[in-house]
Amino acid sequence: MANIEDKWPENKPGMFYVDSKCIDCDLCREIAPSFFKQNAEEGHSYVYNQPISDKDIEGCNEALDSCPVDAIGNDSKI
After folding, report:
1. CA-to-CA distance for 27 and 73, rounded, in angstroms?
2. Strand segments (E) across 1-78
3. 3-class SS at 21?
């Protein structure tokens, strides 16, 4: 499970974030490219756009569920 206290500072404020466990595998960017970007310099992903619609939230949750190291968090998810 991602830790909100370890999230990358470039994450856009909102419900989704990527924390320091990210291994830059590209999976989140493949699943939800409208919401995740790469910080190539530091070798990790981050949330650059927060979803609004149910469909977009579903895509971000799919990325969260698919993350191999549980580096994506949703602070509204129980």
Report:
1. 15
2. 16-18, 36-39, 44-47, 72-74
3. coil
Burial label, 75 (beta-carbon count in 10 A; 0-12, 13-18, 19+): exposed
Provide the whole-model pTM.
0.94
Residues in the chain: 78
pLDDT at 77: 54
Spell out, as residue ranges, where the chain has pLDDT lower than 70: 77-78
Tens digits of per-residue pLDDT, 31-50? 999 999 999 999 999 999 99
Q: With DSSP H G I counted as helix, E B as strand and the rest as coil, what are the percentages for the chain, rounded to 5? A: 25, 20, 55
Supply 53's token pair. Answer: 């619609």
